[in-house]
Amino acid sequence: MAMASVRSGLFRTALRGGSRPSAPPKRGFASSSLDDDAHETAKWEKITYLGIASCTVLAIYNLSKGHPHHEEPPPFPYLHIRNKEFPWGPDGLFEVKHH
């Protein structure tokens, strides 16, 4: 008889939802606070803008400098061997003669 009352007690407890193990608290991936996240975001935003500004200044400086212009190489005769006349004339189609 004692066994039957224990079973019925367990059955009633299960129906009421009592003595269930509580779910573990949800954890985020990062355990930092929102204030820390906002601080980190602001820090990296400032670093990004500083990087953009410094790269822009460096590019303007490099592009404003002159670069050396080399002399034209001498015309080597073996570069333009013409064994046969082209249908459009003696020069190549896209060659421009400098007179």
From TrEMBL:
Q: Say which domain of life the source belongs to.
A: Eukaryota
Q: Kindly state a single biological-process term from the GO annotations of this entry.
A: mitochondrial electron transport, cytochrome c to oxygen
Question: What are the protein's UniProt keywords?
Answer: Membrane, Mitochondrion, Mitochondrion inner membrane, Transit peptide
Annotated stretches, region: Disordered: 14-36
Gene Ontology molecular function, alphabetical? enzyme regulator activity
Its annotated compartments are: Mitochondrion inner membrane
User: InterPro entries in the record, alphabetically?
Assistant: Cyt_c_oxidase_su6a, Cyt_c_oxidase_su6a_sf
Keyword presence, Transit peptide: yes
Any single Gene Ontology cellular-component annotation: mitochondrial inner membrane
The protein depicted here goes by the name Cytochrome c oxidase subunit 6a, mitochondrial-like
